[in-house]
Predict the structure.
Amino acid sequence: MTVDALTDVSGLRVGHATRTGDGWLTGTTVVLAPEGGAVAAVDVRGGGPGTKETDALDPRNVVRTVEAVVLTGGSAYGLDAASGVMAWLEERGRGIRVGADPAHVVPVVPAACVFDLGRGGDFRARPDAATGRAAVEAAAASEPGAPVSQGCVGAGTGAVTGVVKGGVGSASTVLGSGITVAALVVANAAGATVDPETGVLYGELFEGRRVEYPAAEVHAAAQRRLAETAARSTPPPLNTTLAVVATDADLSKAQAQKLAGTAHDGIARAVRPVHLLNDGDTVFALATGDRAPDAANPLALNEILAAGADMVTRAIVRAVRAAEPVDGPGGAWPSYGELYAGR
């Protein structure tokens, strides 16, 4: 049984730590790999990224696998959440062995952040090591293949796309070969996810199904509401869409990096414009290695690459649809569901 989420890739678990109220509107999401790690790579396209340990994932470098990936709010401050995840992993002896003692390990925990500073009202309310620890503990406590909470949770708690509330979304598919490809995103873009001409989500145009457009009067009312919201809101100085695209295929680091790169196409279908100077768009790729692609077909990877981009697009649509509106001391962001109720 599948749950149409990142956790359909066997061995991967997802945990969120969410902080709201009293000036908070932020959080952290952790993707926990199976014990022993997963092959990992990264591709950064945004002009203002906030990341940690991404250089280690270069295929030319020694690190091959990682134990966890951290997605977090709090801009560069929030990268401290990775320290809590590292400490949790070290306590369990998970990481790269660096000495004769099995306890002497260094967990490699890549991380990337989104900008949500001050969106809850308090600029200093941002994730820290304790937040990261709470998120990895939540991941470890979850059952294998558990559904992934979506919307305004974890790193998506304070996320915004344009002037519409963003959040966390996830999706998966099983290819004809039996290989699973899945994605989890934090949709927090400077660009828009909603077509201003029709009110349809850009990403829905690529989902391979008939698109139902909002009624003209509904769209007109939504546009008036968005214009009013934009007029009284201060545009955020930085945004970012983050994604983890994963597969149970046996991939090399170079192949995983190609998967991370093509997955950015999934962001470009769902967000316009994308990869701006004030974005930090970053995609991580994970491969657990349970299934071997067809060795006789040198282009077998193409199907995985195409599915990765498709799952990122679908996950962004789900993130925006699952988000709830926010109206607080740090700003007001209507949700897509509120603007286009019943669609």
